[in-house]
Design goal:
Layout (H helix, E strand, L loop, with lengths): L2 E7 L3 E6 L4 E6 L2 E4 L4 E4 L3 H18 L6 E6 L2 E5 L2 E2 L2 E8 L3 H6 L6 E11 L8 E2 L1 H6 L5 H24 L2 E8 L1 E4 L2 E4 L8 E5 L9 H4 L5 H12 L5
Antiparallel strand pairs: 1-2, 2-3, 3-7, 4-5, 6-7, 8-13, 9-10, 9-12, 10-11, 12-15, 13-14
Helix pairs in contact: 1-6
The chain binds thymidine-5'-phosphate and aspartic acid.
Length: 237
């Protein structure tokens, strides 16, 4: 697989064209960012850990029938993925209230949400990813009614699959964010699933094992990601 021109550079990943028009290379960099890019740092090993973590989760989801863009690992910090036309919205499911929902709704941090709740956000850093609803998505043409329905259904399916996967390894999947895209009219899960885009707590101590360690200056960010990977059995070296 030949890596060609850079198509796009995000805050933590870069995307490259390849010799195949339908495939891209995702490069997971050591960069980390929070608060819509206001806080940034370089963390050793993070690109490698996230690349392998993402590959493990995407394969697990595929085994359960979720169509994803993931094709294969290319190197320690690169993966080959399908080229998707991305839908510019973020799909968030929450099993426990924490983070922005507590500030927005004034609800207590740490309460269980039964049933889990769902939110859409517009992917737009300058606007700080505002919350949107499905009428916005349809009216502005970001996705069709069918795609909206499918994104909600798939995100809840992913929640069921991953919540039990994490729990088997003594971790709570608190919340997470997914992004979807289309190829040839079909919807695929795109982007990534790593501790950068979800919250994971130890089931007993409720210790944070995700990017909140970076957001809140708790230290041991990559060490926590590696701990999660090791508990799940993600091969890292
Ligand atoms: P929030 O509490 O900040 O709204 O985030 C909810 C979850 O979604 C959390 O696991 C982080 C993830 N997320 C991202 O990864 N990127 C984003 O831009 C947003 C809005 C959320
Ligand atoms: N991923 C987003 C950012 O960089 C939001 C966050 O994680 O806080 O800024």
């Amino acid at each position: 697989m030949q890596r060609s021109d850079q198509l796009y550079a995000g805050k933590a990943k870069s995307v490259y064209l390849t010799d195949s028009p339908e495939l891209l290379i995702l490069h997971f960099r050591n960069d980390t960012s929070a608060f819509d890019g206001q806080k940034v740092a370089q963390l050793d090993r993070k690109g490698m850990v996230n690349n392998k973590f993402n590959a493990f989760v995407m394969r697990e989801l595929e085994k359960h029938g979720i169509a994803t863009h993931f094709e294969r690992l290319l190197s320690d910090d690169e993966s080959v993925v399908k080229r998707l036309e991305m839908i510019p919205v973020e799909c968030v499911v929450r099993n426990i209230a924490t983070g922005s929902i507590c500030k927005r709704l004034g609800v207590e941090d740490g309460i269980d949400l039964d049933p889990p709740t769902f939110e859409f956000f517009l992917k737009n850093d300058p606007l700080h990813d505002p919350m949107i609803n499905e009428y916005h998505i349809r009216s502005f043409g970001w996705a069709t009614e069918d795609e909206v329905k499918t994104m909600i259904e798939r995100t809840f399916q992913v929640n069921d699959i991953l919540k039990s996967m994490f729990l088997k390894s003594d971790m709570l999947l608190v919340d997470f964010k997914l992004e979807f895209g289309r190829q040839d009219g079909k919807l695929f899960l795109g982007d990534e699933f790593t501790p950068d885009g979800c919250r994971i707590w130890d089931v007993n101590t409720r210790e944070k094992l995700d990017k909140d360690r970076f957001r809140r200056n708790l230290g041991g960010v990559v060490e926590a990601y590696e701990e999660v990977a090791q508990r799940l059995g993600v091969p890292l070296d």
